[in-house]
Write a structure and sequence with these properties.
This protein has 289 residues and is mainly α. The chain has a single domain, classed as MFS general substrate transporter like domains (Growth Hormone, Chain: A, Up-down Bundle), CATH 1.20.1250.20. The protein has 13 helices and 2 strands. The longest helix has 30 residues.
């Protein structure tokens, strides 16, 4: 909890450490969650809980920060303290989970890579995962700038818009899983990716900012839905002894895709936000093909 301007280096260091720890948790805890019960809908429910409470945390912080409750001013330090409390509670819950049988067999990276390469479906999934991350971040990696500079939102309006749409997206994801998951997977993929691709292409060819806003909004709204179709079957396909290393490989590939997508986003942004959406549409189309 630092307040002085001279502490900027420490603050930046702690941000880096927080990001590293977050990814360590993802690649160490998530494989065990998947190993407890391999069920596609359960996987999607877990992701939806993650998305929902992440957005709720942002909402609560946004509402309370800068306000005085009783005699206490809610500042960033208070938010950090609340975060630490929830982390401790999460730790207590995790250590009290019983009957988790983790594989004690050491699985080498080379052995896992060989296992993945032999499964053509998993190879295609990994390639799809990387291209999808490139496409997603090319289109929406700079969404805050696209809203403020490209669509003339104020910083406050853009923040509130993204938060509101994100929360609605969480609700849509829950409703889609419970009430509307088409039996035809191709229809599901069309709803999640196909409509997004078409809207991006229309926005690019028309150069209409209203359509750009509609395309961005739809893309965020549908982003949390149908992970039980797009990710779960492939992750649950992996044998338990390979889950840990596979998760490392998957997230590494995903981060590479994200980095490439953000690089493309920065280049396209110089030409206008329609170019971001246009290149993203092309990448989605390539992925479909």
């Amino acid at each position: 909890m630092l307040n002085h301007s001279g502490d900027n280096i420490l603050i930046n260091l702690f941000i880096i450490l927080d990001t590293i720890c977050q990814n360590i948790i993802i690649i160490s805890i998530y494989p065990f969650i998947v190993s407890i019960k391999k069920d596609d809908k359960l996987y999607s429910k877990r992701k939806l809980v993650e998305y929902l409470f992440s957005d709720i945390g942002i909402l609560v912080g946004g509402i309370l920060i800068g306000r005085t409750i009783g005699n206490i001013l809610v500042d960033y330090n208070i938010c950090l303290l609340v975060s630490v409390i929830f982390l401790i509670l999460a730790f207590i819950v995790v250590i009290n989970i019983k009957n988790i049988k983790a594989s004690k067999e050491k699985v080498e990276l080379k052995k896992t890579i060989q296992y993945i390469i032999k499964d053509k479906i998993i190879v295609l999934y990994i390639l799809d995962y990387m291209i999808s991350n490139i496409a997603m971040n090319t289109g929406l990696g700079l969404k805050m700038l696209m809203l403020t500079n490209g669509l003339n939102f104020s910083a406050g309006e853009a923040t509130n818009f993204l938060l509101a749409v994100g929360l609605i997206a969480d609700v849509i994801g829950i409703m889609a899983l419970k009430y509307f998951t088409p039996k035809n997977d191709y229809l599901t993929l069309t709803i999640k990716f196909g409509i997004r691709m078409v809207l991006y292409w229309i926005a690019y060819t028309s150069n209409d900012l209203t359509i750009c806003l509609i395309a961005i909004t739809w893309s965020i709204l549908i982003s949390t839905a149908y992970e039980n179709i797009t990710d779960a079957p492939y992750i649950n396909r992996i044998k338990n002894e390979y889950q840990m290393v596979f998760t490392n490989v998957r997230y590494t590939v995903g981060l590479v895709g994200t980095s490439i997508g953000l690089y493309f986003a920065g280049i396209m942004y110089n030409y206008g936000i329609t170019f971001n959406l246009g290149l993203s549409a092309f990448l989605y189309y390539s992925n479909f093909c």
